[in-house]
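Re: the 211-residue chain
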Amino acid sequence: MVEGRVRQLKGYQKSHHLPDGHHSAAQAFVRKVGHDNVKELVDQFYTEIRSLFGYKRRDFQYTCEDGFGCIKTPDFDLQVRIDQCPADAKNYQLTTEITALHNAEIASDDRFHACFTHHCETLIVEFPGSINIDEKIDAIEDIEEIAQYLSYEPDGSSFELRLIPLDLQISVTESEMTFQLLTLRDLEKLINHSQKAFEILTAVGLGAAIG
């Protein structure tokens, strides 16, 4: 994700005014003046993906309008969108997201890492249903290997694991689990270390496989 000032977007003109709050009109404005930024990035991805993976034109589905872009390939789906920053009304957030993997092996493909390592720094796993945070915290505290890396909210709304040996921060809520590296962005490392964390967390019912 990239964040910046709205006035730096390609579609912003001198006659425009920066958003003064968070509302639907402000969001629509950010998407309008940021559309060219989204299209530039989506078109760049299209070219790189075609070059790296050798897909033919008919293998792609390409959409880009109103500050939102989507590329669908046989192996994965990609989305790029621009939104008003929740923390600062005068800022934008440009987000690149891999929304689906149709081929599990693509997650370990060097071409995939080369294409997205500078754009994707977070791995998100959504749970099929709500989990009981208190139960997961109790189970983790019983595992000496990882208990020392645990912190959590007193109200039981979420918890975090800073797994120093894996250079990984894991944040868990009732609905999802997110993974980020503690150091430099590296998609291959993020995927590999997240998979190792899944193997550790299988003992508390949070295990999974990427893809």
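The chain has six helices and ten strands.
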